[in-house]
Specification:
Layout (H helix, E strand, L loop, with lengths): L8 E4 L2 E2 L3 E2 L21 E8 L2 E10 L4 E2 L3 E7 L2 E3 L5 E2 L2 E5 L26 H9 L8 H4 L3 H6 L1 H11 L2 H8 L10 H6 L22 H8 E2 L8 E2 L4 H6 L9 H11 L6 E2 L3 E2 L6 E3 L8 E11 L5 E7 L2 E2 L5 E5 L4 E4 L3 E3 L7 E12 L2 E11 L3 E10 L4 E8 L5 E10 L1
Parallel strand pairs: 11-12
Antiparallel strand pairs: 1-10, 2-9, 3-6, 4-5, 4-10, 5-6, 5-7, 7-8, 13-26, 14-26, 15-25, 16-22, 16-26, 17-18, 17-21, 17-25, 19-20, 19-24, 22-23, 23-24
């Protein structure tokens, strides 16, 4: 399986269709292959873009000389034609580490499992099925392989042995039970050396749990998931699956998928309903669920009536927040900054924006953003980023502007995971 790495994006001056010599990180907001933890000879899934063309495939990273081979092209689109052809690079391409669908395990059968104790499985699904299978005792073949005729003939001897093993103390206990005894009478039960509901709790050593309730009995019987002996293991909760720190409990199949979605790429995106930006002054996206760690805002031909810049503000259950941002946006000629939201540069009423701004949860309620887009009208690429810490869990997002302009063209949407 290809090696995955976060936020790796570099430039390359390579031309042609051969091995790529990797340059420096695109900006300080990105990592080089080495900074991202990629080791020599690692196979990665790469994405090369230049102009409107792209090449998506697998290659091998070489630390010496910092090169990337282009071994297998999974998809490409060159001059508007889709296929699996290599791009002929012109010396101004960008190289990123990406993830193909097959790089991410989505079933328990695709997750490796280290065999331990009585469990010989090599994947999680097989391990679960093996745990669900009742194992036959080691001496279960005694009766199965016995000769039936010999067993019948030995019946008398078995009865004799049973009688001999019946102790005098046991006879004494039975003598203490009155004729026609009521088995619900605690005194009769005690006289026989037995136990009943409401009486003494049976300790584990005597075949019970020493508990008076079902919940307490389960606690007494359960064991850690790392224990090799056969027994009862408690199922982990959704919160424990996401935290990934509970070593003494075992997840079910949905729990395994939940862990994958959280820790191996976030799962599939949920896409909101797109909103037309042909009029109005602000556009809200609400109902973003707790636990989301990545949000992508996409713009298609979005325009304002004047020279204001675009602004995205985040919010929690307490409302949208309009202070405490550190953000900036620039093109080849100008730079704009804002503390009121994540800003995206615009020059004039004739300009329009197409591109994306991506938000990543850094930790707890701290969010960082980066954007890259094309500004039509002035025909320039713009980029930028920023950071913001909310007071609580993010639940909503707003697209607005820095001044009093109105929106007059385009469409905006978000997706999250």
């Amino acid at each position: 399986m290809a090696v995955l790495a976060n936020r790796v994006a570099v430039s390359t001056a390579t031309t042609g269709t051969g091995t790529v010599t990797l340059g420096s990180a695109l900006t300080d907001a990105f990592l080089t292959f080495a900074e991202g933890g990629v080791s020599d000879a690692d196979e990665v899934t790469y994405l090369i873009t230049e102009g409107d063309d792209f090449e998506f495939g697998r290659g091998t990273y070489t630390a010496s000389g910092t090169t990337l081979s282009r071994d297998t092209v999974l998809d490409s689109k060159i001059g508007g034609t889709a296929g699996t052809t290599k791009m002929t690079l012109a010396g101004a391409a960008e190289v990123r580490i990406a993830a193909a669908a097959e790089d991410i395990a989505t079933t328990a059968a695709a997750l490796p499992f280290v065999a331990a104790g009585d469990i010989a499985a090599t994947d999680v699904q097989a391990a679960i099925e093996e745990l669900d299978t009742e194992k036959e005792p080691a001496d279960a073949t005694i009766l199965k392989d016995a000769d039936i005729g010999d067993t019948v003939q030995a019946h008398s001897a078995v009865l004799d042995a049973t009688t001999a093993s019946f102790l005098t103390a046991d006879e004494t206990k039975l003598d203490g039970i009155e004729a026609g005894a009521d088995v619900t009478d605690a005194s009769n039960v005690a006289a026989a050396g037995a136990h009943m509901s409401g009486g003494t709790d049976v300790p584990i050593a005597d075949g019970g749990t020493g508990s008076s309730t079902a919940a307490a009995a389960f606690t007494a019987l359960k064991q850690a998931a790392t224990t090799t002996a056969t027994g009862v293991v408690e199922k982990s909760t959704s919160a424990e699956n996401i935290a990934g720190t509970e070593a003494d409990k075992f997840p079910d199949v949905p729990g395994v998928k939940e862990m994958i979605d959280t820790h191996a790429g976030g799962g599939e995106f949920t896409r909101a309903a797109a909103q037309a930006t042909t009029s109005g002054t602000e556009f809200d996206f609400t109902g973003i669920p707790a636990g989301v760690s990545e949000i992508v805002v996409s713009f298609q031909g979005v325009s304002l009536s004047g020279t204001d810049s675009f602004l995205i503000q985040l919010g929690d259950a307490g409302g949208l927040e309009a202070t405490g941002y550190e953000s900036g946006s620039f093109n080849a000629a100008s730079t704009v900054t804002s503390t009121s939201g994540f800003i995206i540069f615009e020059a004039s009423a004739t300009d329009w924006l197409s591109g994306v701004m991506t938000f990543y949860r850094q930790e707890a309620n701290k969010w960082r953003a980066s954007h890259g887009a094309f500004m039509g009208g002035i025909n320039r690429a713009i980029a930028g980023g920023g950071t913001k810490e909310l007071s609580a869990e993010l639940t909503q997002l707003r697209l607005t502007r820095t001044g009093t302009d109105t929106f007059d063209a385009g469409e905006v949407n978000i997706m999250y995971r």
